[in-house]
Amino acid sequence: MEILEKRIEETKVAYAQYKGSYSKIPAHLQEVGQLVIDDGLKMTGMVYGAYFNSPDEVPENELEYEIGFSFDGDLKLQEGMLGFKEIPEHTVLAAIHKGPYTEVGPVIQAIAKYADENGYDIVGPVTEVYLNDPSEVSAEELLTEVRFPVIKMG
Where is the AraC effector-binding domain (predicted)? Predict the structure, then answer.
């Protein structure tokens, strides 16, 4: 697995925050995608999940995460459960996982270890960017870019 440092451009996103089991993520992706479509926003291709804690740290019902889609257009005020924000330009350590979403854990651990061993501070939640659609490819063909926002120390 190749771990790269890369710059991520400023991105406008529409998102919703959730608490509970990761097993509900596919339904949440559909829900947020439909809200974005219903709002008339022009999606620009990035579909992501940001994860604020870990199943290793908290019970399943306390897992906190955000599901979002990038879009082109003006930022708006929150509408119902859909929020809007600009993610500023930032540096990440990233690697691609090929396979089921449920098997991404070792990639997350490898990037965290790489960051620690190479003088990076992790400065935000792990984010998974979903590069293809589970309704179009098999679980074994799913591509996920795992990103940790970082600052190089020293």
Answer: 1-151
